[in-house]
Amino acid sequence: MAAEGGTKAILAALFANAGIAVSKFVGFLITGSSSMLAESVHSVADTSNQGLLLLGQKTSKRKATKAHPFGYGRERYFYSFIVALMLFTLGSAFALYEGIHKIQHPEELSSPMVAVVILVLAILLECYSFRTAIVESRRLKGDKSWWAFIRQSKTPELPVVLLEDAGALFGLVFALLGVGLAVVTGDPVWDGLGTVMIGVLLGVIAVTLIVEMKSLLIGEGASDSELAAITDELASGDVERVIHIRTQYLGPDELLVAAKLALRDGLELADVARAIDEAEKRVREKVPAARLIYLEPDLYRPVRV
């Protein structure tokens, strides 16, 4: 479900950004607008980013090997992290450089209405991509706020596409403002200022994604609600209590659970094995992402002060 939704959002963004990139480059060649150039590079970077996200989804499905016994699920996090770096370097850094250059050395725009028409069409295409990302993300978001979804989601592609599309929409608006004000005032410096605003916006989005993807790449545990559900399911039947528990996401749909359990006294070996098997079954039914579960029976020794 998560992978299918993420793929649909990625493909929508890929086709939209590819078309937008071509039209923006044509607009830049006609007008010479730095905002158009910055947006062109931004769209090319976004198109490449969607390709990397699709690559990450494909390579993460490889079977586990002796060298990688837990599989390749984290490759989706790795490629999402690379996407964030590309957004920062190709998008933000280039836009800031180009904008500052045009402010220091302003140049008159030629055929600015061509840029306006292209930007308006690009906004419509980007709205389609953004809407697709919102619809697919809403299925996983639940009752969380959008910011909480971006911060807590274990599916990296949807937050990446959401923030990319939001940044693209605002970037197009900034470019439109820059070109429009340059035409109205006759001062091409506004075009450079619009480009700088695009660079700052992309920088903020890129840093946010870098922080979140780094956290996933290092390894995040189950959410509070998932951890509570797992603990409740474990502490049932012949299991008296969970002594301690550790969890970690090995990929968006694969959670590792390791716990030490205190079992009821006097159980035979066969009963211990049955209690462990039943505990694993309960957890998997409640939290399907918990695919790898390692449980160790032990005696509970309360700490005495």
Automatic annotation (TrEMBL):
Gene Ontology biological process terms from the UniProt entry: zinc ion transport
One Pfam family cited in the UniProt record for this chain: Cation_efflux
Keyword set, alphabetical order: Membrane, Transmembrane, Transmembrane helix, Transport
Residues annotated as domain Cation efflux protein transmembrane: 10-217
GO molecular function: monoatomic cation transmembrane transporter activity
Compartments where located: Membrane
NCBIfam families: CDF (TIGR01297)
Name the UniProt record assigns to this protein: Cation diffusion facilitator family transporter
Organism in which the protein naturally occurs: Saccharomonospora azurea NA-128
